[in-house]
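Consider today's protein:

***
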Amino acid sequence: MKMFDVYPLYDINIVRAEGSYVWDDKGTKYLDMYGGHAVISIGHTHPHYVEMVTNQLKNIGFYSNSVIIAQQKELAEKLGRLSGKSDYQLFLCNSGAEANENALKLASFFNGKKKVIAMKGSFHGRTSLAVAATDNPKIVAPVNQTDNVIFVPLNDEQALEEAFLANKGEISSVILEGIQGVGGIREASRSFLWKIRSLCDQHDAVYIADSVQCGCARSGQYYSHDWAGVSADIYSMAKGIGNGFPMGAISISPRIAPKYGMLGTTFGGNHLACAAAIAVADVIEQENLIDNAKKMGDYLIAELRKLPNIKEVRGRGLMIGIELFEDAAPLRKKLIYDEHIFVGSSGNKNVFRLLPALNITQAHADQLLTSLRKLLTA
Protein backbone atom coordinates (compact mmCIF):
# COMPACT_ATOMS: atom_id res chain seq x y z
CA MET A 1 0.00 0.00 0.00
CA LYS A 2 1.15 3.56 -0.70
CA MET A 3 0.03 6.88 0.70
CA PHE A 4 -2.90 8.66 -0.94
CA ASP A 5 -1.05 11.52 -2.63
CA VAL A 6 -2.86 14.69 -1.55
CA TYR A 7 0.00 16.64 0.07
CA PRO A 8 2.69 18.52 -1.89
CA LEU A 9 5.75 17.78 0.26
CA TYR A 10 9.12 19.38 0.89
CA ASP A 11 11.92 16.84 0.48
CA ILE A 12 12.75 16.99 4.20
CA ASN A 13 12.40 14.16 6.72
CA ILE A 14 12.11 15.59 10.25
CA VAL A 15 13.21 13.05 12.86
CA ARG A 16 13.86 15.07 16.04
CA ALA A 17 12.62 18.24 17.70
CA GLU A 18 13.31 20.33 20.78
CA GLY A 19 11.91 23.73 21.70
CA SER A 20 11.70 25.83 18.54
CA TYR A 21 14.13 23.69 16.52
CA VAL A 22 13.73 20.53 14.45
CA TRP A 23 16.36 18.28 12.82
CA ASP A 24 16.14 16.23 9.64
CA ASP A 25 17.57 12.77 9.03
CA LYS A 26 20.79 14.32 7.69
CA GLY A 27 21.37 16.26 10.91
CA THR A 28 20.38 19.69 9.52
CA LYS A 29 18.89 21.96 12.18
CA TYR A 30 15.90 24.19 11.32
CA LEU A 31 14.24 27.04 13.20
CA ASP A 32 10.52 26.25 13.37
CA MET A 33 8.54 29.49 12.99
CA TYR A 34 5.41 27.69 11.82
CA GLY A 35 4.77 25.01 14.42
CA GLY A 36 3.04 22.64 12.01
CA HIS A 37 0.13 25.03 11.29
CA ALA A 38 0.04 26.67 14.77
CA VAL A 39 -0.07 23.31 16.53
CA ILE A 40 3.14 23.59 18.57
CA SER A 41 2.18 26.03 21.31
CA ILE A 42 4.68 25.29 24.10
CA GLY A 43 7.62 24.12 21.98
CA HIS A 44 8.53 20.65 20.78
CA THR A 45 9.11 17.96 23.43
CA HIS A 46 8.68 20.32 26.37
CA PRO A 47 9.91 18.41 29.47
CA HIS A 48 6.65 18.84 31.42
CA TYR A 49 4.61 17.74 28.40
CA VAL A 50 6.77 14.65 27.82
CA GLU A 51 6.60 13.72 31.50
CA MET A 52 2.81 14.14 31.73
CA VAL A 53 2.07 12.15 28.58
CA THR A 54 4.60 9.41 29.41
CA ASN A 55 3.33 8.98 32.96
CA GLN A 56 -0.28 8.86 31.79
CA LEU A 57 0.52 6.23 29.17
CA LYS A 58 2.09 4.04 31.86
CA ASN A 59 -1.25 4.01 33.71
CA ILE A 60 -4.03 4.13 31.13
CA GLY A 61 -4.14 5.68 27.66
CA PHE A 62 -7.80 5.27 26.79
CA TYR A 63 -11.23 4.37 27.98
CA SER A 64 -14.51 5.60 26.55
CA ASN A 65 -16.85 8.32 27.79
CA SER A 66 -18.99 5.70 29.49
CA VAL A 67 -16.95 6.10 32.70
CA ILE A 68 -15.61 8.98 34.80
CA ILE A 69 -12.38 10.43 33.41
CA ALA A 70 -11.14 12.68 36.19
CA GLN A 71 -8.64 14.43 33.93
CA GLN A 72 -11.55 15.97 31.99
CA LYS A 73 -12.70 17.92 35.04
CA GLU A 74 -9.13 19.03 35.78
CA LEU A 75 -8.70 20.23 32.20
CA ALA A 76 -12.04 22.08 32.23
CA GLU A 77 -11.04 23.93 35.40
CA LYS A 78 -7.64 24.92 33.99
CA LEU A 79 -9.05 26.11 30.65
CA GLY A 80 -11.80 28.03 32.43
CA ARG A 81 -9.21 29.84 34.53
CA LEU A 82 -6.87 30.55 31.60
CA SER A 83 -9.66 31.85 29.36
CA GLY A 84 -11.54 33.75 32.05
CA LYS A 85 -14.66 31.72 31.27
CA SER A 86 -15.01 29.44 34.26
CA ASP A 87 -18.81 29.50 33.94
CA TYR A 88 -18.67 27.94 30.45
CA GLN A 89 -19.02 24.21 29.74
CA LEU A 90 -16.45 22.01 27.96
CA PHE A 91 -17.02 19.32 25.35
CA LEU A 92 -13.95 17.44 24.14
CA CYS A 93 -13.36 15.96 20.70
CA ASN A 94 -10.41 15.24 18.40
CA SER A 95 -9.76 18.01 15.85
CA GLY A 96 -10.62 21.52 14.76
CA ALA A 97 -13.01 20.36 12.06
CA GLU A 98 -14.79 18.16 14.59
CA ALA A 99 -14.95 21.04 17.07
CA ASN A 100 -16.59 23.28 14.46
CA GLU A 101 -18.99 20.51 13.39
CA ASN A 102 -20.11 20.14 16.99
CA ALA A 103 -20.40 23.90 17.45
CA LEU A 104 -22.60 24.30 14.37
CA LYS A 105 -24.70 21.26 15.29
CA LEU A 106 -25.14 22.43 18.87
CA ALA A 107 -26.26 25.87 17.72
CA SER A 108 -28.90 24.29 15.51
CA PHE A 109 -30.09 22.06 18.35
CA PHE A 110 -30.30 25.12 20.58
CA ASN A 111 -32.53 27.29 18.39
CA GLY A 112 -33.98 24.80 15.89
CA LYS A 113 -32.74 26.79 12.89
CA LYS A 114 -30.73 25.74 9.82
CA LYS A 115 -28.88 28.64 8.21
CA VAL A 116 -25.31 29.69 8.98
CA ILE A 117 -23.52 32.95 8.19
CA ALA A 118 -19.81 32.53 7.48
CA MET A 119 -17.13 34.89 6.20
CA LYS A 120 -15.49 35.13 2.80
CA GLY A 121 -11.91 33.93 3.13
CA SER A 122 -12.84 31.60 5.98
CA PHE A 123 -11.50 28.13 6.80
CA HIS A 124 -13.33 25.95 9.32
CA GLY A 125 -12.29 22.41 8.36
CA ARG A 126 -12.65 19.77 5.68
CA THR A 127 -15.67 17.79 6.88
CA SER A 128 -19.41 18.07 6.23
CA LEU A 129 -20.82 21.40 7.44
CA ALA A 130 -17.40 22.72 8.49
CA VAL A 131 -16.19 22.53 4.90
CA ALA A 132 -19.51 23.90 3.61
CA ALA A 133 -18.81 26.97 5.78
CA THR A 134 -15.28 27.22 4.35
CA ASP A 135 -14.83 29.70 1.51
CA ASN A 136 -12.89 27.43 -0.85
CA PRO A 137 -15.00 25.68 -3.52
CA LYS A 138 -12.01 23.49 -4.49
CA ILE A 139 -12.32 21.46 -1.29
CA VAL A 140 -16.13 21.36 -1.12
CA ALA A 141 -17.37 18.11 -2.68
CA PRO A 142 -20.87 17.97 -4.23
CA VAL A 143 -22.15 16.06 -1.19
CA ASN A 144 -21.05 18.94 1.06
CA GLN A 145 -22.77 21.66 -0.93
CA THR A 146 -25.73 23.31 0.80
CA ASP A 147 -27.93 26.39 0.54
CA ASN A 148 -27.82 26.74 4.31
CA VAL A 149 -24.51 28.66 4.38
CA ILE A 150 -24.42 32.36 3.51
CA PHE A 151 -21.05 34.07 2.98
CA VAL A 152 -20.51 37.75 3.73
CA PRO A 153 -17.30 39.81 3.49
CA LEU A 154 -15.28 40.00 6.70
CA ASN A 155 -15.88 43.32 8.52
CA ASP A 156 -18.80 44.32 6.27
CA GLU A 157 -21.42 45.22 8.87
CA GLN A 158 -24.04 46.20 6.30
CA ALA A 159 -23.75 42.87 4.46
CA LEU A 160 -24.02 41.03 7.77
CA GLU A 161 -27.17 42.89 8.73
CA GLU A 162 -28.67 42.35 5.28
CA ALA A 163 -28.01 38.60 5.53
CA PHE A 164 -29.97 38.48 8.79
CA LEU A 165 -32.83 40.52 7.33
CA ALA A 166 -32.99 38.50 4.09
CA ASN A 167 -33.21 35.29 6.11
CA LYS A 168 -35.29 36.58 8.98
CA GLY A 169 -35.91 33.98 11.64
CA GLU A 170 -33.74 31.39 9.86
CA ILE A 171 -30.19 32.17 11.00
CA SER A 172 -28.96 29.55 13.45
CA SER A 173 -25.42 30.82 13.90
CA VAL A 174 -22.63 33.10 12.78
CA ILE A 175 -19.19 31.48 12.65
CA LEU A 176 -15.92 33.31 12.13
CA GLU A 177 -12.26 33.23 13.02
CA GLY A 178 -11.18 36.20 15.13
CA ILE A 179 -8.12 36.26 12.87
CA GLN A 180 -8.40 34.38 9.59
CA GLY A 181 -5.45 32.01 9.23
CA VAL A 182 -5.60 30.31 5.84
CA GLY A 183 -7.32 33.46 4.58
CA GLY A 184 -4.07 35.39 4.97
CA ILE A 185 -4.10 36.71 8.57
CA ARG A 186 -7.13 38.99 8.33
CA GLU A 187 -8.46 40.26 11.66
CA ALA A 188 -12.10 40.87 12.47
CA SER A 189 -12.60 44.44 13.68
CA ARG A 190 -13.88 45.27 17.14
CA SER A 191 -17.02 46.91 15.78
CA PHE A 192 -17.74 43.93 13.51
CA LEU A 193 -17.51 41.45 16.40
CA TRP A 194 -19.83 43.59 18.50
CA LYS A 195 -22.22 43.80 15.53
CA ILE A 196 -22.28 39.99 15.40
CA ARG A 197 -23.01 39.87 19.13
CA SER A 198 -25.82 42.41 18.78
CA LEU A 199 -27.46 40.72 15.78
CA CYS A 200 -27.19 37.25 17.30
CA ASP A 201 -28.89 38.52 20.46
CA GLN A 202 -31.56 40.28 18.43
CA HIS A 203 -32.32 37.28 16.18
CA ASP A 204 -31.83 34.40 18.66
CA ALA A 205 -28.73 33.17 16.81
CA VAL A 206 -25.54 31.65 18.21
CA TYR A 207 -22.18 33.42 17.94
CA ILE A 208 -19.45 30.82 17.24
CA ALA A 209 -15.85 31.98 17.65
CA ASP A 210 -13.65 29.62 15.64
CA SER A 211 -10.49 29.74 17.75
CA VAL A 212 -8.86 26.63 16.32
CA GLN A 213 -5.85 28.55 15.00
CA CYS A 214 -6.19 31.98 16.60
CA GLY A 215 -7.05 30.71 20.09
CA CYS A 216 -5.15 28.95 22.88
CA ALA A 217 -3.20 32.14 23.73
CA ARG A 218 -1.71 32.66 20.26
CA SER A 219 -2.92 36.24 19.83
CA GLY A 220 -1.73 37.46 23.23
CA GLN A 221 -5.19 36.81 24.66
CA TYR A 222 -6.53 33.31 25.27
CA TYR A 223 -9.15 33.85 22.55
CA SER A 224 -8.44 36.43 19.83
CA HIS A 225 -12.06 37.64 20.13
CA ASP A 226 -11.13 38.83 23.64
CA TRP A 227 -9.28 41.78 22.12
CA ALA A 228 -12.72 43.23 21.29
CA GLY A 229 -14.06 42.61 24.79
CA VAL A 230 -16.91 40.55 23.36
CA SER A 231 -18.08 37.11 24.49
CA ALA A 232 -19.14 34.43 22.02
CA ASP A 233 -21.64 31.66 22.79
CA ILE A 234 -19.32 28.88 21.64
CA TYR A 235 -15.53 28.84 21.18
CA SER A 236 -13.99 26.04 19.12
CA MET A 237 -10.42 24.96 19.90
CA ALA A 238 -7.83 22.50 18.60
CA LYS A 239 -4.27 22.77 17.23
CA GLY A 240 -2.33 24.39 20.10
CA ILE A 241 -4.55 22.92 22.81
CA GLY A 242 -2.66 19.60 22.60
CA ASN A 243 0.76 20.71 21.27
CA GLY A 244 0.69 17.97 18.64
CA PHE A 245 -1.55 15.43 20.34
CA PRO A 246 -4.88 15.24 18.44
CA MET A 247 -7.36 17.18 20.54
CA GLY A 248 -10.33 19.44 19.89
CA ALA A 249 -12.85 21.14 22.14
CA ILE A 250 -15.73 23.55 22.32
CA SER A 251 -16.33 25.92 25.22
CA ILE A 252 -20.05 26.51 25.59
CA SER A 253 -22.01 29.35 27.17
CA PRO A 254 -24.07 28.44 30.26
CA ARG A 255 -27.20 29.55 28.40
CA ILE A 256 -26.95 26.43 26.22
CA ALA A 257 -28.12 23.41 28.20
CA PRO A 258 -26.79 19.91 27.53
CA LYS A 259 -28.93 16.81 26.92
CA TYR A 260 -27.77 13.22 26.94
CA GLY A 261 -26.84 12.07 23.46
CA MET A 262 -26.93 15.44 21.67
CA LEU A 263 -23.14 15.31 21.15
CA GLY A 264 -20.78 12.35 21.35
CA THR A 265 -17.37 10.97 20.48
CA THR A 266 -15.41 7.76 20.95
CA PHE A 267 -11.93 9.17 21.48
CA GLY A 268 -12.59 12.75 22.59
CA GLY A 269 -11.35 13.57 26.07
CA ASN A 270 -9.55 10.28 26.58
CA HIS A 271 -7.00 9.98 29.39
CA LEU A 272 -3.95 10.51 27.19
CA ALA A 273 -5.40 13.47 25.28
CA CYS A 274 -6.37 15.16 28.54
CA ALA A 275 -2.88 14.63 29.96
CA ALA A 276 -1.41 16.37 26.91
CA ALA A 277 -3.84 19.30 27.11
CA ILE A 278 -3.38 19.67 30.88
CA ALA A 279 0.39 19.84 30.36
CA VAL A 280 -0.07 22.57 27.74
CA ALA A 281 -2.36 24.56 30.04
CA ASP A 282 0.16 24.19 32.89
CA VAL A 283 3.03 25.53 30.79
CA ILE A 284 0.99 28.42 29.36
CA GLU A 285 0.08 29.48 32.89
CA GLN A 286 3.39 28.80 34.66
CA GLU A 287 5.59 30.33 31.95
CA ASN A 288 3.28 33.32 31.30
CA LEU A 289 3.02 32.45 27.62
CA ILE A 290 0.00 34.66 26.96
CA ASP A 291 2.15 37.66 27.91
CA ASN A 292 5.12 36.29 25.96
CA ALA A 293 3.00 35.84 22.84
CA LYS A 294 2.00 39.49 23.00
CA LYS A 295 5.51 40.71 23.82
CA MET A 296 7.26 38.71 21.10
CA GLY A 297 4.48 39.39 18.60
CA ASP A 298 4.75 43.13 19.16
CA TYR A 299 8.52 42.91 18.70
CA LEU A 300 8.34 40.83 15.53
CA ILE A 301 5.62 42.94 13.91
CA ALA A 302 7.48 46.18 14.63
CA GLU A 303 10.78 44.84 13.27
CA LEU A 304 9.18 43.19 10.23
CA ARG A 305 7.65 46.53 9.26
CA LYS A 306 11.15 47.99 9.01
CA LEU A 307 12.21 45.48 6.34
CA PRO A 308 12.24 46.42 2.61
CA ASN A 309 10.05 44.99 -0.15
CA ILE A 310 7.17 44.04 2.14
CA LYS A 311 3.70 45.29 1.23
CA GLU A 312 2.07 44.72 4.62
CA VAL A 313 2.62 43.03 7.98
CA ARG A 314 -0.52 42.16 9.93
CA GLY A 315 -1.69 40.05 12.83
CA ARG A 316 -1.64 39.92 16.61
CA GLY A 317 0.64 38.14 19.01
CA LEU A 318 2.34 35.20 17.36
CA MET A 319 -0.14 34.93 14.50
CA ILE A 320 1.51 37.06 11.83
CA GLY A 321 1.03 37.43 8.09
CA ILE A 322 3.63 39.00 5.81
CA GLU A 323 2.37 40.10 2.42
CA LEU A 324 4.87 40.63 -0.39
CA PHE A 325 4.38 42.43 -3.68
CA GLU A 326 4.81 39.08 -5.44
CA ASP A 327 4.34 35.35 -4.96
CA ALA A 328 5.88 34.41 -1.58
CA ALA A 329 6.65 30.79 -2.57
CA PRO A 330 10.22 31.46 -3.83
CA LEU A 331 11.08 33.31 -0.62
CA ARG A 332 9.62 30.54 1.54
CA LYS A 333 11.65 27.99 -0.40
CA LYS A 334 14.87 29.97 0.19
CA LEU A 335 14.03 30.33 3.88
CA ILE A 336 13.62 26.56 4.21
CA TYR A 337 16.45 25.25 2.03
CA ASP A 338 19.02 28.06 2.34
CA GLU A 339 18.32 29.59 5.76
CA HIS A 340 16.83 26.48 7.37
CA ILE A 341 13.75 28.25 8.72
CA PHE A 342 10.20 26.92 8.46
CA VAL A 343 7.40 29.40 7.74
CA GLY A 344 3.92 28.77 6.33
CA SER A 345 1.87 29.58 3.26
CA SER A 346 -1.68 30.93 3.09
CA GLY A 347 -4.63 31.07 0.73
CA ASN A 348 -3.18 34.31 -0.66
CA LYS A 349 -0.07 33.31 -2.62
CA ASN A 350 1.66 36.60 -1.74
CA VAL A 351 1.30 36.01 2.01
CA PHE A 352 3.38 33.77 4.24
CA ARG A 353 2.56 33.08 7.87
CA LEU A 354 4.48 32.98 11.14
CA LEU A 355 2.90 30.72 13.79
CA PRO A 356 5.76 29.80 16.12
CA ALA A 357 5.66 28.33 19.61
CA LEU A 358 4.41 30.78 22.22
CA ASN A 359 7.66 30.54 24.18
CA ILE A 360 10.00 31.78 21.46
CA THR A 361 12.67 34.24 22.55
CA GLN A 362 14.06 37.39 20.95
CA ALA A 363 17.01 35.30 19.75
CA HIS A 364 14.65 33.15 17.69
CA ALA A 365 12.92 36.25 16.31
CA ASP A 366 16.25 37.88 15.44
CA GLN A 367 17.42 34.77 13.60
CA LEU A 368 14.37 35.01 11.35
CA LEU A 369 14.72 38.77 10.92
CA THR A 370 18.40 38.46 9.93
CA SER A 371 17.57 35.87 7.27
CA LEU A 372 14.63 37.84 5.91
CA ARG A 373 16.69 41.03 5.74
CA LYS A 374 19.34 39.19 3.72
CA LEU A 375 16.86 37.60 1.31
CA LEU A 376 14.70 40.70 0.83
CA THR A 377 17.69 42.90 -0.03
CA ALA A 378 19.46 40.36 -2.25
The chain has two domains: 14-46+289-376, 47-286. Residues 96-111 form the longest helix (16 residues).
